[in-house]
Every structure is written in C-alpha cells, then in structure tokens.
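> forwarded from #structure-qc
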C-alpha cells in the first residue's frame, strides 16, 4: 500500500509513501487515496486530517511521470478526471485537511496540497507546477485552485514558468499559511489538527462549505448568494429596512 493511515484519537494522519519515486502519484496511489478520503469522511470519530509524505525529501513530487509517459489523450483525460475527483473529495470532506508539506510539492503534489484546507510547510519545502517542462499543463485542478490561492499573476507565473519556489516565497504569496523549522513540521501540524478536531463538527463542515462557495463565486457561491438574498424578502427586517429608507428614517431591527 502506498497510502498509510494512522488514527490517533480524533486525528487521522495520512502519509503518501512511495519513497523510491519521491511519493509520486501513480494511478494506484490516486485510487488508494480516494478510498481513504471516503473512509475518513464517513468516520464521525475523526475531527481533522493531516496529510504528509513519507521521508524528509518529498511531500509528493507530482504525478508519476514513468506511468504517464505512454498515455494517449483518452488515458490522460481519465487520469486527470480521477485526480480531479480526488482533490474535489478532499476539498468537500467534512473534516479539515491539513497538508504538512515536508519537501517537494511539485505538479500533482502541489495540487494535492492546494486541495487541502490549510498548508503548513517546513523551511526546506519547495513548490512548483513544472508540467510546462514536460510539455503539458497541470491536470489535477491546479489551474483552478492556484489562482484562488495566490491570484492570477502568481498562478500564471508558476504554471507558465515551471519555476520552483521555496517555502518563504510560498508563504509570502499565500500558497502556505505557515512555515516552521525543519524537524518541527509533524508536531506543529499535529497540534493544529488536534486544535481543529476539538471544534464543532457541524460548524467546521459549514465553515468549509461556505468558504468554498465564496471561492466558486461563478457557480455555487452565487447560487447561495441568490438563495439568502431571496430568503430575506418578506422577513420583518427586510420590510422594516426598506420601509425606513422610503420614509427617510432610521430602521429599527428586532434583536431576537
Ligand atoms: N514521477 C515518477 N518518478 C519520479 C517523480 C515523478 N513525478 N519525481 C521523482 N521521481 C523519481 C525519479 O525518477 C528517481 O527515480 P530513480 O531513482 O529510479 O531514477 C527518484 O524519484 C528520485 O528522484 P531524483 O533522482 O530525480 O531526485 P533529485 O533529488 O535529483 O530530484 C526532483 C528531485 C527535483 C523532485 C526531481 O525528481 C524531479 O524533477 N521530479 C519530477 C518533478 C515533476 O516534474 N513533477 C510533475 C509531474 S507532472 C504532474 O504532476 C502532472 C499532474 C497532473 C496529471 C494529469 C494527468 C494526465
């Protein structure tokens, strides 16, 4: 198995473990991870998940290039769809997922980190979307999530240049939320996971869903916006607010 899961109380630690290939994601690893995400999502005992890579060199060095090398377009599309579905499932999971980026987060590895809710990195971690140097483009959701996290300018810089940036730069552009000294990442990420796991599960789920909806402002976010906008109509506050405006007086809203 290339994916290890350790349950420690209300925290699950998920480790991608293919050290000989720097934890690169082949089809089997994507499938294993997908099953793990599904299992954890339905495990009410788990309040937060921490995701990391085996060893101290790589988080995940990308999709498996050796496996992809001979793909035709149809196979590439299918692999991309499976990877995208995995990333979507992490993003939609009821629990928060923390990426503990302990080394290279390249290509699909960077995309995997981006699908998590919070990213912590050690000082020696590095990030890139190097697909351009393989003659391809990101296929696991990176073109969509990167601009959301770092803005279009940095997203284009990373996707078009393929350049690798260090943890400090990743922090500066908002790709990660914190950088910690090498050797302390696991404990820091675990501490954060324990902290999150103590929160209300319903509120965590709602918070994730609401922020996600905000990010998807062209689709689901705007539907939510329309829903809450419409639901206000006919309420006492809406009637009072609009009546007050038209009467040139201050509105008086009830507190309960
Ligand atoms: N896939 C397969 N094997 C890999 C990968 C990878 N992504 N990365 C590293 N490895 C293997 C190496 O081939 C090597 O194996 P071996 O010992 O058998 O030769 C072993 O891991 C160790 O790697 P290196 O000897 O290269 O170690 P270095 O410290 O010299 O270099 C690097 C480390 C910089 C990380 C280097 O290995 C590297 O550049 N790797 C490739 C990084 C990359 O380009 N990643 C992006 C891949 S494409 C992608 O992720 C697209 C995602 C969307 C897919 C959509 C589906 C169609």
């Amino acid at each position: 198995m290339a994916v290890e899961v350790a349950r420690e109380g209300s925290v699950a630690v998920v480790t991608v473990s293919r050290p000989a290939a720097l934890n690169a994601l082949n089809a089997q690893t994507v499938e294993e991870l997908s099953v793990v995400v599904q299992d954890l999502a339905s495990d009410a005992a788990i309040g937060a998940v921490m995701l990391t890579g085996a060893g101290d060199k790589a988080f995940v060095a990308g999709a498996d290039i050796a496996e992809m090398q001979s793909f035709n377009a149809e196979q590439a599309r299918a692999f991309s769809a499976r990877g995208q579905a995995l990333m979507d499932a992490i993003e939609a999971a009821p629990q928060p997922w923390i990426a503990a980026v302990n080394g290279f987060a390249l290509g699909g590895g960077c995309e995997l980190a981006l699908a998590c809710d919070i990213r912590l990195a050690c000082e020696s971690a590095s990030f890139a979307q190097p697909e351009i140097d393989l003659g391809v483009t990101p296929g696991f959701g990176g073109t969509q999530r990167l601009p959301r996290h770092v803005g279009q300018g940095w997203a284009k810089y990373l996707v078009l240049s393929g350049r690798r940036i260090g943890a400090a730069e990743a922090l500066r552009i908002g790709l990660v939320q914190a950088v910690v000294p090498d050797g302390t990442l696991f404990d820091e990420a675990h501490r954060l996971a324990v902290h999150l796991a103590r929160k209300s599960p319903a509120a965590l789920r709602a918070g994730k869903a609401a922020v996600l909806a905000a990010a998807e402002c062209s689709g689901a976010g705007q539907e939510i916006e329309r829903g809450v906008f419409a639901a206000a109509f006919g309420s006492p506050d809406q009637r009072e607010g609009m009546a007050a405006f038209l009467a040139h007086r201050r509105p008086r809203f009830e507190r309960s």
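QC bot note: Strands lie at 3-8, 11-16, 48-53, 58-60, 97-101, 104-106, 118-122, 126-128, 165-166, 178-180. Residues 21-22, 24, 61-66, 68, 76, 79-80, 83, 104, 106-108, 130-131, 134, 138-140 surround octanoyl-coenzyme A (CB under 6 Å).
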